[in-house]
Write a structure and sequence with these properties.
9 helices, elongated, 2 domains, mainly alpha, 184 residues, Rna Polymerase Sigma Factor, Chain: A
């Protein structure tokens, strides 16, 4: 066992700086290169039984460093793409918010205007969906009662309510901050 330790130390002392320089050519950062080389030597230490065999140590180290650099660079590129995509989505969101504010209808400031807008949107719902929505939200009936009255299943009532909410949410999205302000 003592021979492996000395052999490992010899390999470490002999090749660490050369391997670090090699890695730095590709990963560009001294710290990242050093971490990669440390990882390779850690793996070599964990598999130091390989040093007992007559392997080409230089080839083993260069191949290991090369593979670690490839993994590192792929990870960096993927992280960059994800970050760029997040920034692009953020930029799109900001542009939409800006466009929404610029197009904001300043005449919608009274409860009557909000009520008129909600009525228009409710009236734009498909007939069955509108009827179910009115029975549920305006008349205050439970889904089971509506289902019995209309001779449909409670699940159909739920599905139609979901459709109504989605349409209302989509139609009112630009007015939501104002609605929260006016109705809050």
């Amino acid at each position: 066992m003592q021979t492996s330790l000395v052999t490992f130390e010899d390999v470490y002392v002999t090749y660490f700086s050369r391997m670090k320089y090699f890695a730095m050519e590709y990963v560009l950062s001294e710290e990242d290169a050093e971490n990669i080389v440390q990882d390779v030597f850690t793996e070599l230490w964990e598999r130091r039984d390989l040093l007992v065999f007559n392997i080409n140590q230089v080839a083993f180290l260069f191949t290991s460093i090369k593979n670690k650099c490839i993994d590192f660079l792929r990870h960096k590129l993927m992280a960059k793409r994800v970050m760029d995509q997040m920034q692009e989505e953020y930029q799109l969101t900001l542009n939409l918010k800006l466009a929404s504010l610029e197009a904001f209808n300043q005449s919608v400031f009274s409860e009557e205007d909000v009520e008129k807008l909600a009525t228009e949107i409710i009236n734009s719902l498909p007939e069955k969906c509108r009827e179910i929505f009115i029975k549920s939200r305006i008349e205050g009936k439970k889904h089971t009662v509506i289902a019995e009255e209309m001779n449909i299943s409670p699940k159909t009532v739920e599905n139609q309510m979901t459709i109504a909410y989605k349409k209302l949410r989509a139609s009112l999205k630009d007015y939501l901050p104002l609605l929260l302000f006016l109705l809050g």
